Amino acid sequence: MSQSHAGTLGELKASGYEHRSVKDEMRTNLVRKLKVGEELFPGVQGYEETVVPQIVNAVLARHDFILLGLRGQAKSRILRQLGLLLDDHIPIIAGSEVNDDPLRPISKYGRQAISEHGDATPIEWVDRDARYVEKLATPDVTIADMIGDVDPIKAARGGHILGDELTIHYGLVPRANRGIFAINELPDLSGKIQVGLFNILQEGDVQVKGYPIRLSLDVLMVFTANPEDYTARGKIITPLKDRIGAEIRTHYPEDLEVGVEITRQEAWVAREDTCVEVPEFLQETVERVAFIARDDKRIDQRSGVSQRMPITVMETVVSNAERRALQHGEGVAVPRIADVYAALPAITGKMELEYEGELHGADRIARELIQQGCSQTFDVRAAGADVDDIIDYFETGGALQVGDDSSAAACVQGFGTVTGLLDLIQNVGLASTSSSDGQRAAACELVLEALVAQRRISRNHAGYARAPHQGPTPGKGYQGFDPMGGLNI
User: Fold this and answer.
1) In the beta sheet, which residues pair with residue 462?
2) 10 CB-near residues (< 8 Å, 6+ apart)
3) What's the CATH fold of domain 3-249?
4) Are strands 168-170 and 148-150 parallel, antiparallel or unpaired?
5) How far apart are the C-alpha atoms of 454 and 210, rounded to whole Å?
6) Residue 272 in contact with residue 318, Cβ under 8 Å?
7) 0.90 exceeded by the pTM?
8) Is 216 within 8 Å of 204 (Cβ atoms)?
9) In whole angstroms, what is the distance from residue 147 CA to residue 135 CA?
10) Residue 196: closest CA among 145, 138, 133
11) What are the C-alpha distances in Å from 396 to residues 67, 272, 388, 457?
12) CA dist., res. 413 & res. 53, Å (int)
């Protein structure tokens, strides 16, 4: 009989089952995964050479640990995937609230069950998902929530005195016995609650209220925290920090390519009713907005610029392109730079500004970030490109008005009036003669926005009349750069 089919304690013993701590269990499964080269944290990118090796070391050393990093750095996702290092199922004494190991029960309920039934004690099997317990730390969390308290109703129903261990209502930590207990935003937990975790981390036991009992818990304790929280909302008390085995620092993507891959993985781009094609250069532009923001002194870098920014921006960009495609009956929605500007609410809401930034305003800063992103993307993808013909067109009196909601075909027709523009996007590989109108329109907008950012042409908002009865629609006008007037955005 296999262990997982054992229904009684006797059958479990006959199957050869042996007690093993949760940290030993995770260590064993991690060693097996490392030997076969199995991916440890699916979907978590950019940490292969930094964070993941440190987590591996902590698990191999059987240490509790904390992930310390700014918002949007996949801390919670990593903790939840630690459950993949647990066994598929483990046996517990049937009805146990603290997942009593049949060979080593820690509760009075478990000991009584074995004393009464012996090898006939019923066994249940718990899967790995039920062995991961997570709690968001908030100031109102109590010791009773975390550890437990007396339950008068349980005492009355069972006919027990209040001092009996069977009257305990166990908190989250004892219920996570033989599993993983994660606390998010640890500094938000009040100091006295943090003190209550001391024994669990050091001696592996816990005492409930004034009961003369000690539960020898078997649990891996893991935490997350934001460095900003140490001063903004609370702190991790020193004795607790001392008991945490490893402090592992997370970080934002260090390479643009990694950031693009993360956004591509997480952003909801595929739409049911519309085919969506997102040009690679637009993906890079969106990602650069976040990268540039993380270096902008007007933005509070202690709070960070979450990786959620490019993800939500990309989703908004696609939605705006989808809306335009539906209005014009286009079969394919191709986002362009105008759609990135339409995603300003997804940018401004994810920036905490310094004093100088407050003076400038979030909307202005976001627009400048987009412009810089366009400029850098163009410089990388079209290094050394000859744009003199395009600049000459505007400096000699040429002008162009483009509606943000204009169809791709209408945009290409307008861009075709600018000398050398369509030839340029083909020569530098941004688009080709076989590319769709949407792709070519997006590429042309990137070129023009980059030239605006580099102060080689100027742009202002204008109305672009589609038809007399429809009235003007939001758009932009490009013209020669006026060094006295500056950029008129």
Assistant:
1) 475
2) 118, 119, 120
3) Rossmann fold (3.40.50)
4) antiparallel
5) 71
6) no
7) no
8) yes
9) 13
10) 145
11) 58, 46, 12, 12
12) 54
Give, for all 489 residues of the chain, the pLDDT tens digit.
456 678 899 999 999 999 999 999 999 999 999 999 999 999 999 999 999 999 999 999 999 999 999 989 999 999 999 999 999 999 999 999 899 999 999 888 899 999 999 999 999 999 999 999 999 988 888 888 888 776 655 655 655 555 556 667 788 998 999 999 999 999 888 888 888 888 788 777 777 666 667 778 899 999 999 887 554 456 888 888 899 999 999 999 999 999 999 999 999 999 988 999 999 999 999 999 999 999 999 999 888 899 999 999 999 999 999 999 999 999 999 999 999 999 999 999 999 999 888 998 999 999 999 999 999 999 999 988 999 999 999 999 888 988 889 999 999 999 999 999 999 999 999 988 889 999 999 999 999 999 999 999 988 765 333 333 334 445 677 776 554 333 332
What is the spatial distance between Cα 204 and Cα 269, in angstroms, rounded to a whole number? 46
User: 477, 460 in Cβ contact below 8 A?
Assistant: yes
DSSP state of 136: E
Which residues have CB under 8 Å from 80's CB, separation 6+?
132, 134, 182
State how far the Cα of 3 lies from the Cα of 123, in Å rounded to an integer. 11
The dihedral formed by the CA atoms of 11, 15, 21 and 22, expressed in degrees to the nearest 10 = -90
Residue 181 · residue 172 · CB < 8 Å: yes
**What is the rounded distance in angstroms from the CA atom of residue 157 to the CA atom of residue 470?**
74
Q: What is the DSSP string of 225-273?
A: E-TTHHHHT----HHHHHHSSEEEE----SSHHHHHHHHHHHS----SS
Q: What are the structural domain ranges in the chain? A: 3-249, 256-480
DSSP letter (8 states) at residue 285: H
CA 341, 345, 351: angle at the middle one, nearest 5? 110
Q: Token pair of 86, please? A: 């647990």
Classify 152 in phi/psi space as left (phi over 0), alpha (psi -120 to 50) or beta.
alpha
Q: How far is Cα 113 from Cα 118, in angstroms, rounded to an integer? A: 8
DSSP 162-217: TTSGGGEEE-HHHHTTTEEEEEESGGGS-HHHHHTTHHHHHTSEE--TT-S--EE-
Burial of 47 (0-12, 13-18, 19+ CB in 10 A): buried
* Pair 302, 227: CB distance under 8 Å: yes
3-state DSSP of 154-165: HHHHHCCCCCCH
Residue with tokens 């902008």: 296
CA–CA distance, 355 with 126 (Å, rounded to integer): 53
